[in-house]
Please model this.
Amino acid sequence: MALVLCPECGEETVDQLINCPLCDEPLTDSQKAEKSKNARLFFFGLAFICGLGAATLCNMLGYTGWAMGLGMVGLASMAILILNLSTHR
Model:
């Protein structure tokens, strides 16, 4: 159970309600979808940073096979992140 803001009055309410208890405005599912999309953006952004950071470290230590694999993980995460950001609106 999470808290969402009413689009009409700004009241914080539980996400399982259908209408706002203060102004009786219907709460939309787009707020729930937005929260899910933000979580995905955070995850793929973190995977991108960690993948490229780990690839750089492996390359510096001489593990080029691992570096290439981790670099591919970072690049794939970046591609997914860009696709999610382009459809974020």
Remarks:
- The CA atoms of residues 1 and 16 lie 7 Å apart.
- The first helix runs from residue 30 to 61.
- The chain has a mean pLDDT of 82.
